[in-house]
Amino acid sequence: MSYELAYSTFGEEEKQAMHAVIESDMFSMGKNVKEFEQQFASFFGKKYAVMVNSGSSANLIAVAALFHRAENALKAGDEVIVPCISWATTFYPLHQYGLKLKFVDIDLKTLNYDVDELKKAISPNTKMIVTVSVLGNPCHFDEINALCEQNKIILFDDNCESMGAKYNGKYTGTSGLVNTFSTFFSHHISTMEGGLVVTDDYEIYCLAKSLRNHGWTRDQDEGSPIYEKKDDDFFEAYRFILPGYNVRPGELQGALGLTQIKKLPRLIDQRRKNAAYFVDKFKDDKRFIIQHEVGESSWFSFTMIVSKETEITRNQVFSALDKHEIKYRIITGGNFLEHDVIKYINHEVTKSDNASYAHNNGFFVGNAPIDLTESIDLLCEALHAI
Ligand SMILES: Cc1ncc(COP(=O)(O)O)c(C=O)c1O
Fold first, then answer.
1. What are the DSSP E strand ranges found in 191-308?
2. Residue 89 CA to ligand 1 centre (angstroms)
3. Is the pLDDT of residue 1 over 90?
4. What is the pLDDT of residues 315-344, one digit of tens each?
5. What is the atom index within ligand 1 of the atom nearest the CA of 182?
6. Average pLDDT score over the chain
7. How many beta carbons lie within 10 A of that of residue 75, not counting itself?
8. Ligand 1 midpoint to CA 233 (Å)
């Protein structure tokens, strides 16, 4: 037996959904994508969702949209606070649009912002805070929302690894002015590749739709606030208003999304059952710090950080996992400050000790919406043998 990092969630329904698209012979963005966007927004109690080809693209067009608002637009040089641990494409669009990144340390237990450090990092130049609920575990949104409100700071919630998680009964990915999701294969629902921008702000919704589609006016509503329609159909048909991208999803992805969103509650439920088993096995094991749940995590995976008190090393752990065919990997992207690419990024760091510790002593093993009892038993056996 082996224990993988991720497992497919596709069954007959997904094959049928893809087959129906093939039969229709209509592959580029159309009614399935639109219907999925509506269902996705409504599932999360938000007004608008814009689907794109990845979570990374969702971050890109969400940042771009914030630069093109009529009022309170971001501008190059503004300061944005980010956590030290996240995925690379949380950071890249911020850098690419000329923002200055201020990195804040994480809490070793939750793996999310150390909220005291976050408070200290806020300056008069801070225009935006990016929250990342790491691996399904919600950030402390009440406190962070309050900080944003008090200081007139935009909240951007990169929820790409935490679909279905809740803080104080409210879904993560719904508190920000903009919120992003990923539907990549290993995530809570899969459209193979895919992502969404979710917002209640109509202007941002219109901007995001144009930015994903060549900066074109093609799928703008009548009365869109981001441009004024003229009386010349010839030019109106190919009118470009924003320096945008082509990051559209296809109909296969839209159809998969429609099938998968129906399953989301069940998929999360199974992930939580696995998590309860994992936590029960490791909560008293002093050799490891496991992720401390805040609110209701949607448990992307199970993190383990070799604790300072133990004599075992991470390499010993890796050898044991290899021997038992248990796959493991870095926690999200690790401490981003430790990657070579950081030399290109205009940034400042307040403190990063915990992120470094997690980077150099931590790892995660997989969770998935299937019963992982035997895999977790195998993990216990492997770690017991060290
Ligand atoms: C926090 C975070 N943001 C963005 C992304 C990018 O999503 P995608 O892989 O769909 O591009 C990921 C990917 O896992 C992520 O974890």
1. 195-199, 288-290, 301-306
2. 7
3. no
4. 999 999 999 999 999 999 999 999 999 999
5. 10
6. 97
7. 11
8. 39
Tokens of 212: 């994903």
Ligand 1, residues at Cβ distance < 6 Å: 54-56, 59, 86-87, 89-90, 132, 158, 160-161, 182, 184, 195, 332
Q: Domains along the chain? A: 12-260 (3.40.640.10), 264-384 (3.90.1150.10)
The alpha carbon torsion through 287, 111, 192, 247 (nearest 10 deg) reads: -150
Task: Give residue 47 CA to ligand 1 midpoint distance, Å.
Answer: 23
Q: Which of 28, 23, 43, 62 is nearest to 178 (CA)?
A: 62
Nearest by Cα to 110 from 238, 297, 260, 245 = 297
Taking the C-alpha atoms of residue 164 and residue 141, their distance in angstroms, rounded to an integer, is 15
What would the pLDDT profile of 202-261 be if each residue is shown by its tens digit? 999 999 999 999 999 999 999 999 999 999 999 999 999 999 999 999 999 999 999 999
pTM: 0.98
Considering only CA atoms, which residue is closest to atom 8 of ligand 1?
55
Catalytic residues: 187
Nearest CA to 302 out of 287, 284, 288, 316 is that of 288
CB neighbours of 164 closer than 8 A, spacing ≥ 6?
136, 171, 188, 264, 265, 267, 268, 298
Tokens coding 103: 């990195």
Query: How many residues does the structure list for the chain?
Result: 386
Task: Taking residues 143-172, report their average pLDDT.
Answer: 98
Buried b / exposed e across 18-37, counting CB within 10 Å, b at 16+? beebeeeeeeebeebbeebb
Q: Taking 90 as the threshold, does the pLDDT of residue 385 lie above it?
A: no
